[in-house]
Amino acid sequence: MFLETILIAMCEIRRNVMRSSLTILGIVIGVASVITMVTVGDGATKQVAYEISSLGTNLIDIHPGQSFRGSGGTRSGAPMFKITDAEAIARDISGLAGVAPVTGRGTQAIRGNDNWATIITGSTNDYLKVRNWTLASGRQFTDGELRAGAAVCIIGATIRKQLFGEQDPVGYTIRLEKISCQVVGVFKAKGQSGFGTDQDDFVLMPLRTVQRRIVGKSDISSIAVSAQDGVSTEKVKADIERLLRERRKTGKNEEEDFHVRDMQEIVKTLTGTTRLLTTLLGAVAAVSLLVGGIGIMNIMLVSVTERTREIGIRLAIGAMEKQVLMQFLIEAVVLSCFGGLIGIILGIAAAAAGASALKVPLILNIGIIVIAFVFSAAVGVVFGYFPARKAALLDPIEALRHE
Amino acid sequence: MITPASGTGNMSPVLELNGVTRIYGTGTAAVSALQGIDLRIDHGDFVAVMGPSGSGKSTCMNILGCLDTPSSGIYRFKGVEVGKLSRDQRALLRRHYLGFVFQGFNLLNRTSALENVELPLIYRGTPAAERREMARKALAAVGLNGWETHTPAELSGGQQQRVAIARAIVASPEVLFADEPTGNLDSARSREIMELMTDFNRDRGITIVMVTHDSDMASYARRIVRFMDGIIDKEEQNGGANNVS
Prior knowledge:
The structure holds two protein chains of two kinds.
Chain A: H1 2-15, H2 17-54, E1 59-64, H3 83-92, E2 96-111, E3 114-123, H4 126-130, E4 135-138, H5 143-148, E5 152-155, H6 157-164, E6 173-176, E7 179-187, E8 203-206, H7 207-215, E9 222-227, H8 233-247, E10 258-262, H9 263-306, H10 308-317, H11 321-357, H12 366-392, H13 396-401
Chain B: E1 13-24, E2 31-42, E3 46-50, H1 57-64, E4 72-77, E5 80-81, H2 87-97, E6 98-101, H3 113-124, H4 128-141, H5 157-169, E7 175-179, H6 187-204, E8 207-211, H7 215-218, E9 223-228, E10 231-237, H8 241-244
Parallel strand pairs in B: 3-8, 3-9, 6-7, 7-8
Antiparallel strand pairs in B: 1-2, 1-4, 4-5, 9-10
């Protein structure tokens, strides 16, 4: 009998193709948008994680202050690091590939009539190793330049393009703040980072040059460290924390006034953000799924009124209340499931298109597809029940008289 | 499930009304459509119910057809008191023992003749192949061989009513209720329909209760019951044109 009821419902849907397709449009759009949003969002999350790890998976960043506040963010009151801190880390911690003390500030880079707002980073040659930078042309700093704080710089690809065009800038000078600075090298371009900033827009100068002639302070704002391959970043992190607690005389029960974070943590923080955005977008799309459900209820109610006489015939012929109820309920559920299926197909197609347009990987989340489908079926049950009940409770005599 | 006493051969009461009244509405707005009806219809009978509009004949039909229940009095269908049954139990009675033909045909639109005739069998749970076969036979019995795939919109009024009759008799009901079955048809078509019904009454022993305005149509019946103002005014035996045709 249950099978027969499904059969009746299917026949009814087939007989009203136009009405049926309009009914499911809302569900189709709802399911498709949920799947598109979540799939593209997942892809973006993966992309961010991938791009961060391209910075170097063994990277460990040490900042003054207590928690993650973006690069260079410091808690007011926490003392900055000194160059001796970086030297101590390099000396006392084993298993490190490089230790780069970093300081910097934003400024204008000027050449002739061109100028370009950029960031000056002061560090050592270790910076290249730690941050995975390679040179497109020129050379690294010499020991002499580093010791003396010479006015030399290595420039990023963006600055080269802005100030030199296609020309090779090595050997030329640019003006940074009040000093005239000789370009000794150019970095190979890395492109945009996962969070939309231009990684190539910076100038690297010897640490001492920046400290003395640009910032005018001997502080360093962070220390970038990279562990050797095969060395556990967890262990290195713990060693650095122990060393710095000692050097900064942090009490046993006191919380440290610096923060050591490895790539895993940065990945977690940033992918957390994109994941939150994905959830939000998915939630908005889910609302449209709900609206789609109301659409089904609306059409089903109209359909019950329109088919009052049919219901009367069925009741007179011997259909029981629950059979009429089931017929309309199954009709609603079959419709919404069908809508769900079409929505899934459209959603995957749209997600594939979106992923290739945004250049993020296409990652199909089976979980969300199943949830969207189950939810669309549930929408059918919930919003189909009221019209179905209305149909089942009709008086056959009245229903047969209905015009 | 209700199991009425099985028919004990010919001329046993199938339908029996005892002091049946039907009152619509309550209080001062109450309208009394039936004011105490006594009627007994035996197995194999063919009864025409006549009377002017508002005389209560349709109300009486609805009660006899188990679509409605009496306000007071007792209606027994094959010995079962219908007034005490639930809505669903009455639906089961209709499903297994009754067939209906309406004035407006009441076929499902956009549905083939065959599928329309299959409908009562679907609710009976008849297997698909058997169902199809029975529906085909029923359509053949009303002379609609070759019209199985046509929808009501593609059929004439007379043909639609034949489909409706096929649907009513496909499950071999005990009683066939026909509410003005020829009301929408011309006289030639009407006679064809009446002859069909007479055949089913005579050949298959299906008890028929028919409401009609038209005394020509009533003349096909074995018995005529005349309603007036909510009571039975007159009952008369009919030599029956059915014996002639």
